[in-house]
Design brief:
There is one protein chain. The chain is α/β, with parallel strands linked by helices. The chain is built from 15 helices and 25 strands. The strands form seven sheets. Strands 5-6-7-8-9-13-12 form a seven-stranded mixed β-sheet, sandwiched between helices. The radius of gyration is 29 Å and the shape is globular.
Amino acid sequence: SGMVVDAALANSHESLLKGLIAHMAPLQAALDDAEAVLDAFKSSAEDGGLGAAAGGEEEPVDPALAGLPPNAFAITLLCVDEKFESRAADLLLQAFAAFPERDYCLLTLPPSVQESQTLLLRSFIKVEPRRSSTFSHVVYVLHKHSLLAKDNLSVTRWGWKLGGESQDPVPEDIVASLAPLRDNVAHPSVLNKLDAAVELAGACLDMHVDDNPQDAIFLAQVGGETVAAVHASREGCSAEEVAALRELYDVDPYVAFDRHRARTQFRVKLALMNPIFMGYGAFIIKEVMRIYQKTICYHAASSNMLESYRRSGAEPTPMADPQLLPENMLQLMIPLEPRQQAGPAPEVQPKPESLYILSRRRLTEPRIAVHSRIVIVGGSGTAMACLQKLLYTPYLYLTDVTIVDPTGVPGVATGVAGAVPPSGREFLPRSLDEPEDVGRAALDLRSRVRVLHGKMVAIDRQNKAVLLAAAGGDGGAGGALLPYDMLALTPGLQDAAKVPHAEGVRGVYSLKNEASGRALLRETLGLMPHLQDPSNDERVVVVGDGLEALTGAAARLDYGVPLSKLLLL
């Protein structure tokens, strides 16, 4: 019997050896790829981000952080049989045991790798690159404490015991519980919203979930420490408000409302998470919906692309509006596109905000995160249409979309009802295909698109990079490089009749975008006293017979330019 066992072992070893030899070629290729990635990473670090990356100068590293000892190790190669890929995360415990002094684990992958196809990435968090970085791979990070949450993370409603069936006789000190999360919040408006949420939820603390409380705060804890807090509210979810929402937004393709009552719908007003536990956002939302007895979740994100204008025609001032939902939770939700109203405008107009929706069924069908670098050159109406098609794809979540335009992307003008902000659009013809103000706000460009103020001067197709003009120059060797995986050229219509030597001459304008319209508006308002003086011979000359010329001439008349001082050639 011993000989039989030895023969069996020999056969087993022989088959294993053959399997290793069969996999040696792809293994060697993987090793070569890993070595190339490390070389690229070292080269990028030695060059300080190469110094020519688009998006501004190199961001300095905090000296206090630079002086700390190394506390991370990297996974350079991982091979797991497909049958056991779901247990790949078990290897991380042993990896941290091998490096007890290290707290973080790093992993780099090409942008073409889909997270949904790599089960190990469910435990990792994607690191946002610096604007000056030219590193071509996606970096993921994992803290060793996040592995404890796999079996120890619990979600409860504030003031109620686990399960929400009985009220806690001594409610937890919410101020002390939220202290670790408050320390990581830098924006004062978020702290104000958190304080308001505590006050609203405290007023409904005695109501059972069967009574459908208006507001509630849910705490996610690991080992007694709060790692996440979610403010859930019934605001804006009455039957009438849901009906108005269905009229204003294209939501019916994603939810069968005949199966969801209005009382089972709610909004996530605010969510704070410890960055270490970002990978558990889907579990936390699922538990909130289960305990709160809801089936549909909404989130409204106000866009900081909103702009305010003064009647003097000054440049717009961006309104700082922080993101109220972590990126990992926002990735679960589907953005809703405002409906195009063919008839008269409805009495209830949609707010200038981006609206997201998540049903309980959609939690089992997460969107696919796409890290491919998409570069769109131009801020024209075509670019906006391209963005709408990309960002409103319900099963995709694009993480790296960049728009390159000399004047940026026009925002949404805000103002008092009835007031018309002088955004410069009055001097330009409006395309019917271009999104309205509400449509621009719904795109949520703040959190989903990176906007670069620059001009493309060349394309390196072999290395897949765009060369941008140098600051104040014409794009020589000092121009910035912007790498891409997919490139879309949408510059829009260009003025072919403009005199070349008139570029930059005061008083000569080419109407091509809202920035030139605002500049022309400032010039027109500044010359208005002279134009309205009958004894003054100054005139406004409009050259052209197209829509731009006619629209510009009509706008000047609307602003008070006398007809006798307007000459159309």
